[in-house]
Amino acid sequence: KAEAALEAQLDLLWGLQMKTFPRWATYEGIRDYDDQLADASPEGEERYIQQVEAIAKQVEAIDPSNLSPMSQDTRAMVLMRAKQMRVGQVCHSDWWSVDGLGGPQVSYLMMPVFHSIRTEQDLKNLESRYKKTGKQIDQTIANLAEGKKNGYTAVRVNVERAIAQLDALLARPVKEDPMLRIKPAKEGDTFDTTALEAAVTDVVRPALTRYRDFLRDEILPVSRDKVGVSALPDGDKCYAARMQGHIGEGYTAEQLHQAGLDELEVLGKGMVEVGKELGLKDPTPQDVIAWIKAQPEHYAKDAPTIVKLNEEVVARASKAMPEAFGIVPKTPVEVRELEPHRAPDAPAAYYNPPPSAEGDRPGIYYVNTHEPTTRPLYNLEALAFHEAIPGHHLQIAIAKELPDVHIWRRNVGQTAFVEGWALYAEVLADEMKLYSDPLSRFGMYNYQAWRAARLVIDTGIHTMGWTRQQAIDFMTKHTALPENEIANEVDRYIAWPGQALSYMVGRLEIMRLRAEAKERMGDKFKLAEFHDVVLGRGAVPLTLLRQNVTRWSAAATEETTK
After folding, report:
1. Of 277, 468, 285, 309, nearest in space to 379 by CA
2. Do β-strands 333-337 and 363-367 pair in parallel, antiparallel, or remain unpaired?
3. Do residues 105 and 140 touch, judged by C-beta distance below 8 A?
4. What residues contact 150, with CB distance under 8 A and at least 6 apart?
5. Model confidence pLDDT, tens digit, residues 73-108
6. 334: which strand partners?
7. Which of 404, 143, 394, 439 lies closest to 289, judged by CA?
8. Which of 30, 36, 398, 426 is in the most buried spot, having the most CB atoms within 10 Å?
9. What is the spatial distance between Cα 95 and Cα 283, in angstroms, rounded to a whole number?
10. Is the distance from CB of 66 to CB of 154 less than 8 angstroms?
11. What is the pLDDT of residues 201-256, one digit of tens each?
12. CA torsion angle for 400, 421, 414, 392 (degrees, to 10)?
């Protein structure tokens, strides 16, 4: 009875999310809302939060003792989600969020990528969705205007980035607009895109022009040079809310800042060891970084090289997975080159999960080949292990394939778990001897240092008044990331307060839980079993992960003593 009651509320919650965020529904392969766009008004947001809170109230009334352990976790996650949404409102994000990563000038271009066209109706739905962009853009503009009135302003560098992206997009001939690159589900199928082109010409482009002009004329002149969220009204409360949403409760900014500095010291020693292996005499971490960055042969020759090497690394890792995992996903992962219109402002690589409902898409590992000769080969393997296998693809595909688990649960998760796992995967790959040479092992230390530096930089920017340049200089000193990547990364931390904390916080907790379980279980500890416990319940918050791992290790220890 309790399980059925929970299931009914989860059905309502999932249905509500799909209806409220129709583009997410399409992305998940749920095609009922293909012709819709989200309501971006404050009233729309408040209505949604109230509906989630009403569901959470019903879920709270279910006695957890009558639920399975998996469902107990689900119940707790629903309650956390409702609480975090309400707490997060202190940020008034819609009043000041302008960036080069997630604004309409980026997200709109993704619409046709995941909207596979199987029939003429699918094409008509996409056209209908395009025709609604005008209303959504006007809501976005109204939100920013309200923010301006209330003293909430966007960060200048991110406004400039968004304007430059819009200028570049609008300067293209309509025929070359990325929004007209439709994706037929069947190879060889062709569709008439005349009406779609008319929607882009008559609605989308004028809307994006209005947005660009508004940013240039109204927002840029009042945009702020102080990049931290603390510069906004209630900024400190906003950062605390964002921290809670991404990593959970119980952490302070000062604590995490120091943890990042401590971790950098440990990782610096690893860099020095690799430097000695590569023939450097008594180097400091900075000597190793400088030498590795200075060698031309440490960079890609061209775009095809980057794609080919990534395909080889992912194949090698896939083959090795049964050594360390009992559960491996059935869904494949595919390496793809990032489209040229997205590449200049995008990170070095990222992962797009497979859909939940429509099985026509694998997991996609996108690699950025823009300016290929600036792309370091030494980072390539660590990045592939993070984004594909044993990182994001392995974890997310397993979550999406969990048997007898509600679709809502298979698709939610705390950032600290998701990113913490992917960062842990980079280190696990070293234990599994997956790195091909010392240079690639340096890449692992470099990438771990990058995430440790994030703890320092994110807290520095948002609670300690750090400038953008201070953050860039710190990252340049402690990592071998290329300059163009460092600037993109720092602008991302500015735009998404608190998100960058998730990686190292999650990785440190997974390592801690593994060490504790091993100490408690002794010879009974099996790495594959530990991984199956960690991944076998989806991307749970770290507090629930701790409970699950502790329960598992305690049960195994009790069996031994019986």
Report:
1. 309
2. parallel
3. no
4. 92, 95, 233
5. 999 999 999 999 999 999 999 999 998 888 999 999
6. 364
7. 439
8. 426
9. 48
10. no
11. 999 999 999 999 999 999 999 999 999 999 999 999 999 999 999 999 999 999 99
12. -40
Output the six-digit token pair for 512.
């801690």
Give me the DSSP letters along 106-148.
HHGGGHHHH-EE-SHHHHHHHHHHHHTHHHHHHHHHHHHHHHH
Beta strands in 338-388 (DSSP E): 349-352, 363-367
* C-alpha–C-alpha distance, residues 534 and 520, integer Å: 17
**Terminal alpha carbon distance of the chain:** 34
The C-alpha atoms of residue 496 and residue 490 are separated, in whole angstroms, by 10
In whole angstroms, how large is the CA radius of gyration of the chain?
Answer: 24
What pTM was computed for the model?
Answer: 0.93
- Chain centroid offset of residue 407 CA: 19
One-letter amino acid for residue 141 of the chain: I
Instruction: Work out the angle at residue 117's Cα, subtended by the Cα atoms of residues 114 and 123, and round it to the nearest 5 degrees.
Output: 105
Residue given tokens 């209505």 in the structure block: 47
State both tokens at 187: 């190879």
In whole angstroms, give the CA distance from residue 104 to residue 520. 50
CB atoms within 10 A of CB 339: 14
Q: Which two tokens stand for residue 86?
A: 């309400």
